Amino acid sequence: MSTLEGRDGTALLVVDVQRDVMAASVGSEAVIERIGGLVDRARESGTPVVWVQHSDEGLVRDSEGWQYVPELVPGEEEPLVHKVYGDSFEGTDLEQVLGERGVGRLVVAGAQTDMCIRSTIHGAFARGYDVTLVGDAHTTEDLREWGDLPAPELVINHLNEMWRGQRAPGRTAAVVPAAEVAF
User: Fold this and answer.
1) How many Cβ atoms sit within 10 Å of the Cβ of residue 58?
2) Which end of the chain, N or C, is surrounded by fewer C-beta atoms within 10 Å?
3) In whole angstroms, what is the distance from residue 82 CA to residue 91 CA?
4) Which residues of 117-130 are buried (b: 16+ CB within 10 A; e: fewer)?
């Protein structure tokens, strides 16, 4: 039901599940396992899997920490989008990649909840996509040492609750657990 005409397909968007990002995030092992299950199910159903990989001064491109976690390996035919902004669409070819595949609905998982996941789901929704956030397959690090910020579990819960209430004409937003994702 997206507002993108002629784009009825779905894609799994795996955002920034990189070694250093996941090493600093809470519940990473379980999140990686759930994402791995989503990737397997997407592949089995013929649903495109699109990988996003972030780089910046703290996550230097081609460094060991910049690499995807070893448990998740992009397929040779699966697109890998490199980004330098939180929103996976900004300054990338993600829109083109999705358009070529007829995608109008995104299922989103990865890291970090309060940065790149939040920016990407809002960016997708504003661009006309239906967006399903996998509520138990995104994570973030504990940033409380930087100020009066909530615990990471509360950040994750907050995004899930906020996204459940997201509304706009001609688009849908949803939050579902990994086990209930339908491709």
Assistant:
1) 10
2) N
3) 9
4) bbbbbbbbbebebb
